[in-house]
Amino acid sequence: MIKGSCLCGGVKFEIRGSNGPFELCHCNRCRKASGSAFAAGLRVRCEDLRIIQGQELIKTFEAPIIDGPPPYTNRFCGRCGSPVPVLSDDGWFEVPAGTLDDDPTIRPDKHIYVDFKSPWYSVGDGLPQMTKSQIQAHRRGV
After folding, report:
1. Domains of the chain listed by start with CATH number
2. At 98, is the secondary structure helix, strand, or coil?
3. Which of 30, 124, 128, 141 has its CA 20 to 30 A from that of 10?
4. Is the dihedral of CA 110, 132, 66, 92 positive or negative?
């Protein structure tokens, strides 16, 4: 069992298993939501994540649609502002890796949306790097 929480400890969750993928997203919205060069996120099957405390503290912000659906959804603790897991449009949770209290036992496997990467950041870890068009082709099965 992997435990996670927000900054104030008001929202707590548990993850069964390690799941994945574990992606480092460089899109504009993830950078702004994380306040960093990229957002480190672990994808977790819906049935493997359980909010065990603080559901009532969770707030949601839906950013307007830019290119097409779905909108960018940001969930956070209403008390401390820390990001918390977000249910994506495909039925998986996107778990901000920085909210994990335990080692997830898996490591980041790729950088995504690198065509939107901050100009002041250089990727140097040797992980695969995917652009928006590569991600879209992959999702279409091309």
Report:
1. 2-140 (2.170.150.70)
2. helix
3. 30
4. negative
SS3 137: helix
Contact 68, 27 (CB under 8 A): no
Residue type, 130: M
Rounded CA separation 80/94 (Å): 19
In sequence order, what are the residues at sequence separation of 6 or more whose Cβ sits closer than 8 angstroms to the Cβ of residue 48?
15, 16, 17, 19
Q: Say whether pLDDT at 142 is over 70.
A: no
Alpha carbon separation from 9 to 3, 74, 81, 82, 123 (Å, rounded): 11, 18, 11, 10, 32
- Cα–Cα distance, 4 to 2 (Å, whole number): 7
State pLDDT tens for residues 66-97: 665 556 788 999 999 999 998 887 788 999 99
Weakest-pLDDT range from 10-19, 23-32, 64-73 = 64-73
- Pick from 74, 75, 92: which is nearest to 20 by CA? 92
Question: Are the CB atoms for 48 and 98 separated by under 8 Å?
Answer: no
- For residue range 91-138, list pLDDT tens digits in order: 889 999 999 999 999 999 999 999 999 999 999 999 999 999 898 887
